[in-house]
Amino acid sequence: MMARPDDSGYDPEGAVRSRTAIVRRSFMPLLSVPDVDAVLAELRPKYHALLAELIGFASLYGNEGPMQRRVLEEMSRLGLSVEVVKSRDDEHALNLAARIPGTDPPRHRSLVLNAHADVVPVDPASSWSHPPFAGTVSGNVVHGRGAQDDKAGVVTVLLVVEALRRLGLRLPGDLIVQIVAEEETTGNGTRALVAAGFGADGAVICDGTWPERLYHAHLGHISFTLRITGDPLAASNERRGVNPVYVAMDMVARLRAHVAALNADTVPFEGIEHPYFVNVGSFHAGVWCGSVPAMAELSVQMGFPPPASTTGMMETVEALAASLSPRIMVEPWLLMREPYRGDPAAPLIRKLQGIVQANGSGECQVMSITGYTDMAAFGTPNVCLYGPGGGRNSHGVDEHYFLDHMASVARNLALFAADWCSSPRPELA
Ligand SMILES: [Zn+2]
C-alpha cells in the first residue's frame, strides 16, 4: 500500500513547528523504500516508452524545439506549471522550469533536478547498428543518440516527480524541475533558468553517471575553428603556392606537442592522470585531387585542468597559430567551459552518497570527469551529477542505455529529494 499524507505519519504543518522535530525526521518516516519501489515498478513501462519516444527527436543544437514541446506536454500532464525561458533568439532554445512549491519554503532547503534535452551530432548514421533516432528497445537496452546522454536523465527526472506525486508527498522545501537546451554547447540553458529565479539551495544534474557514482568535478573545455587559406593552383603547380592542408597538419602537430608537454608537467587533476587533451573533430579541405585547396577548415576541442582558463587556453592557441602562419584564423566556437572542482564533502554530496550507498549494491564513488557539465551555473557547492544510470558510447556510435538502471536511480533521487527538501536551511539549523 502506498503511503498517503494522512497515514504516513508525516504532517508538513507539524514538521515546521519546531526545528528539533524537523531534524529528527529523516527521510525514512517520509518515504519507505518498498512504497517508492512499488510506485516505480508501476510507472516503469510508461517511462521506458517515453524514453524511446524522446530519442526519436533529433534535438541537436538549433533543433531542440520539438523535443522540448513534447517534454512540456508531459510536464503539464504531471500537473506542473511550466515556465519557458529562452536562451537564444530562436524558436528552439526552449528551457523548461517548474517549481513544485514546498509547504514551508523559507525554512527548508530547495532542490533543483536538472537534465538536458539537447544531443550531440551523429557520425556517421550508416555505421550505427540501430537507427540513431529511432529509440529501438532490445531487452534491457534502448539504443539511440541521447539514450544515455541525456534523454534518460530527462525521463528519470519526470519519473521522480510522478512517483513523489503518486506517493502523496508534500515536501516542506521547493522542488524545481529544469529541462534545458544547449548543455552540450554553451551551457546557456541552465544559466538562463538560474537567472530567471529557478536556482535553489542544492542541485542534482541527472546526467552521465552510473547508479553508484557521483561527479563533483570536471575539466575545462575550449572549442574553435581553424580556417587556413591556401593558394588554389593546379596540382601540377603546387610548389608555387601554399597547400593549407600541410599548414593544418603542422598546426595540429604543434597543438599535440603542446598538450603532451603540459601533461608531462602537470599533476593529476582530481584523479585525471593526463588532464590536457586536444581533439580534431572535423577536417574539410578542397574538392578534388587536381587542385591545391583554397581553404582547410578544422574544428578542434581541447580540455584542461585549473588553474588554466578558457581565456588563457584560447590565447595560447592564437599564439601558436600566429607563430606558425599568418594564414591561420582561429575562431572560437560555442563550447567554452571553465574547469570546475566542487567540494566532495558538501552536505548535498554526502547526503546523496549515503542514500545511494544504503540502497545500492556497493560503495558510491565521488569522482571527476574529463567532460563538462552545468554544475558551475548553480553557484552553490551543493551540486553534483547523479544518474540516470549506465550505458555506453555517449557522443559516439551506437549509444545505448541500460533501462533497468532507471528505477534504482529514480528511487535514490526520490529518497534524496524528500530528505533534502525536509531539512532546515543551514542558517536556521
Ligand atoms: Zn550530457
UniProtKB/TrEMBL annotation:
Superkingdom per UniProt: Bacteria
Q: Which residues cross the membrane?
A: none
Q: Which InterPro entries match?
A: Bact_exopeptidase_dim_dom, Peptidase_M20, Peptidase_M20_dimer, Peptidase_M20A
**Signal peptide location in the record?**
none
List the Pfam families hit by this protein, alphabetically: M20_dimer, Peptidase_M20
Looking at the record, the residues that make up the Peptidase M20 dimerisation domain are: 217-326
Q: Indicate yes or no for the key word Manganese.
A: no
MF terms from GO for this chain are: hydrolase activity; metal ion binding
Q: Provide the alphabetized UniProt keywords.
A: Hydrolase, Metal-binding
Against SUPFAM superfamilies, the record matches this protein to: Bacterial exopeptidase dimerisation domain, Zn-dependent exopeptidases
Protein name according to UniProt: M20/M25/M40 family metallo-hydrolase
